[in-house]
Write a structure and sequence with these properties.
single chain, about 280 residues, mainly alpha, MetI-like fold, 2 domains, two-stranded antiparallel sheet, about 75% helix, BP-dep_ABC_trans_perm, cell membrane, transmembrane, Sugar ABC transporter permease, membrane
Length: about 280
């Protein structure tokens, strides 16, 4: 009887913790959804209960976003920036991570740690020299400046991440391909990359998410509304002085966060496999 009571208590504690975690993580999405669907009288009436609808829901905030602002352009800018940064990051991080993983001795590990440490440098220390580079290239007030700047912090982390995954991959796979007639690059493309899809997918999700949520560099290099990514556009163009358009802000945040949440849930298994792949042999 005592063991049964202990098991029941343990299961109750476990499911209570899971329920609390689910509520904690789902509440921001619920708050964004309910705020974006409230009418302005319902939203700004301090006597109303804020956790549900006190008046009929409306889509006026979404309509305002797409008709009265450049929200669609901001989404397109963020998509273009994210895809370009992902392509640049993978082009640099894949061969770099594989080369570091195959280096003999402590040099490869030390160099990999050094590359990862560059990711830890705060952006507030780097945007001044980077702004000089952007100005010298004539990319001021252009979204292409972010395509140039963002790989400075995505490439180091992804290189370190892929290096750990490649270290866990048997060397004999590439050696067998070379014996069968492949060049070193051919073995890397035909054998190593297909087996590295979980790690590559992890790098893609990480890079795209980081570019989507970055704010400091975007605020520093871009001021024209047509060139802003969605993070900067929602945070600046929907705030006029001391007036916050909370309905539109929450609607924009909800639309921008849904694709990322769906991507994480669809590829969760591969994402975890890519993150932990370098931790086990």
């Amino acid at each position: 009887m005592r063991r049964a009571l202990l098991n029941i208590a343990g299961e109750s504690a476990f499911y209570s913790a899971v329920a609390a975690f689910v509520v904690l993580t789902a509440f921001p999405f619920y708050w964004m959804l309910i705020t974006s669907l409230k009418s302005n009288p319902d939203l700004y009436n301090v006597t109303n209960i804020p956790f549900w609808f006190n008046e009929t829901p409306t889509l006026e905030h979404f309509q305002y976003l797409f008709e009265q602002t450049l929200f669609a352009r901001w989404l397109l800018n963020s998509l273009i920036i994210g895809l370009c940064v992902v392509a640049i990051t993978l082009t640099a991080a894949l061969p770099a991570g594989y080369s570091l993983a195959r280096m003999v001795g402590r040099n490869g590990e030390a160099l990999g740690i050094g590359i990862f440490l560059t990711y830890l440098v705060p952006p507030t220390l780097l945007f001044l020299p980077l702004s000089r580079i952007v100005a010298s290239l004539g990319l001021q007030n252009s979204m292409w400046s972010l395509v140039l700047v963002y790989p400075t912090f995505t490439i180091p982390f992804c290189t370190w991440l892929l290096m750990g995954f490649f270290k866990a991959m048997p060397v004999e796979i590439a050696e067998a391909a070379i014996v069968d007639g492949c060049s070193l690059f051919g073995a890397f493309v035909r054998m190593v990359l297909p087996l590295s899809l979980p790690a590559i997918l992890t790098a893609v999700i990480f890079t795209f998410t980081l570019t989507l949520q970055e704010f400091v560099y975007a605020l520093t290099f871009i001021s024209a509304s047509a060139q802003k990514p969605v993070t900067l556009g929602v945070a600046t163009d929907l705030v006029r002085g001391d007036i916050f358009f909370w309905g539109e802000i929450m609607a924009g945040a909800l639309i921008a966060s849904i694709p990322v949440a769906i991507a994480y849930n669809l590829f969760l298994d591969r994402f975890i496999s890519g993150i932990t792949g370098g931790a086990v042999k």
